[in-house]
């Protein structure tokens, strides 16, 4: 029998319960995967708490990697025994799961299961944010909020490799050092000082071209104060709570700013888009642009502890759950 974490009501980490659960045989267009490693992501917390709408009961988890154990009718390009990784839909906190075959990505030899589960959702997000939401250029300057986090460590390294000037924020002296070692030219401890004031100093008063902010409520408005006139605010997460839509006039008074609120669901709507981003990520890992390190490991049975650590700002970089 296979085990999975099940959420039957929204709430804190304790609502996840490890239960026996047979995922069943794959239906048409589906595959069954025996997970070898599962990625922990903040979206898992939003779905567990009810901030993001999901139908109950459900198995959380949006990232993983493992071996295909069965394929359903009509699946042609994936076979039993293949090594695959995936991002979404939820259902990853399980020893075995079903997945639409179009969401599975065959893993090249140089990507092991832990690397895939540690890098795919975070790294493919970094990819679309740096290459598609805004095509970052070498002469540009960005601010990345929570630069020592899972997405942050990968994205700042990648942005630095593109030649951009990268400023980051982080919430402790240790995190500041970690972000500095992973691509940031300068890191601001935003628990100790105003990051907008420091960004103005660093940019000679001009402001940065783009702010990437996944902290959300606590930093949104001050992030706008970091931008140059007509700069872009990319608000892509809610670690501190969701951002209420502001009076749009604020964008005029702060310099005719642009704001976008992107999600992987739109950027990776098709299998072709998904696989293209994975290809770019795997190439960046293969050529050494990115160095994927697992910073924390928990047993699948201890998923609640992993959520407490992530929401409590106790983690850095990528975290895995191991079945
Ligand atoms: N839109 C998309 O397509 C997309 C895709 C993937 C991820 N995301 C978003 O990207 C963000 C990063 O995801 P992740 O999984 O890599 O998480 P993470 O960055 O590893 O963890 C979140 C970090 O946010 C900072 N933070 C600031 N205030 C916080 C608060 N009140 N509560 C908790 N954390 C706070 C903490 O760093 P400090 O201690 O340094 O402040 C914390 O470590 C999340 O908001 C996630 O939803 C969005």
Annotation keywords:
single chain; 323 residues; Rossmann fold; 7-stranded mixed sheet; 6-stranded parallel sheet; 10 helices; globular; binds NADP nicotinamide-adenine-dinucleotide phosphate
What would a concise description of this structure say?
The chain folds into 2 domains: 3-120 and 271-322, Medium-chain alcohol dehydrogenases, catalytic domain (Quinone Oxidoreductase, Chain A, domain 1, Alpha-Beta Complex), CATH 3.90.180; 138-261, Rossmann fold (3-Layer(aba) Sandwich), CATH 3.40.50. It is 30% helix and 26% strand.
Please describe what this structure looks like:
The chain has 323 residues and is α/β, with parallel strands linked by helices. It has two domains: 3-120 and 271-322, Quinone Oxidoreductase, Chain A, domain 1 (Alpha-Beta Complex); 138-261, NAD(P)-binding Rossmann-like Domain (Rossmann fold, 3-Layer(aba) Sandwich), CATH 3.40.50. It is 30% helix and 26% strand. The chain has ten helices and 15 strands. Strands 3, 4, 5, 6, 7, 14 and 15 form a seven-stranded mixed sheet that branches. It has a six-stranded parallel sheet with strand order 10-9-8-11-12-13, with helices on both faces. Helix 10 (303-311) links the parallel strand 14 (294-299) and strand 15. It is globular and about 60 Å long. NADP nicotinamide-adenine-dinucleotide phosphate (NAP) is lined by residues 41-43, 121-122, 125, 146, 148-152, 170-171, 175, 214-215, 218, 236-240, 262-264, 310-311, 313, 315. Residues 41-43, 121-122, 125, 146, 148-152, 170-171, 175, 214-215, 218, 236-240, 262-264, 310-311, 313, 315 line the site of NADP nicotinamide-adenine-dinucleotide phosphate.
